[in-house]
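Q: Could you fold this chain for me?
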Amino acid sequence: MTNRLDMTAMYAMHDAVRRELRHIAKAAATIDDDPRRVLSTAAGWELFKKALHVHHTAEDDALWPAMRGALADRPDDLALLEAMEAEHAAIDPVIAAIDAALADRESGRERLGDLTDALATGLSGHLEHEEDEALPLIDATLTEEQWRHFGQVHGSLIGPDVPRILPWLLDGASTEAVATMLAPLPEPVRIAYQDEWRPAYAALDRWNANSMT
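A: Sure. Below is the predicted structure, expressed as structure tokens.
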């Protein structure tokens, strides 16, 4: 199915979140080290939280309101938007609980495993729900201008973190997706991505893999 709107960035974000959920599960299940130490000191955990917060904030602030205005007379579709927002709201407390468990010396391996499982289940379910129902509705409803505005808000929320978030987002993306994402950027940004940001990201031990070997 070909989308009317270019959703390359949306699917790249979803793929990146799924990738990081696998890393989180692996870190939480490590046997040779304290998983709380591994996860709490992992740069990948902070990157994941930052990128996810930016993504969901942009959707809540710039995407769902635009959709709500366009779908004011369609209660079933409005209910879908409410479900998207409710799913977002359910994720933040799980992340906060994981951080609390990481900081609590009395919190054991089982507690952390339960929480990371809950995060993976809730977030994976949300991504699937969004892709199956919300993205087709967005594609059929929003104007190109509204979709671009959402992308601009998303980018503004990343702000000074773009040297870390952009290579994180494009990690594992197809050559076509990378080209599509980089094409609209100013040439100095594309050069910085290729020559500085991507190599720095590649050298980052995001999930403390070296300390577990």
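A (continued): Residues 163 and 197 are 5 Å apart (CA to CA).
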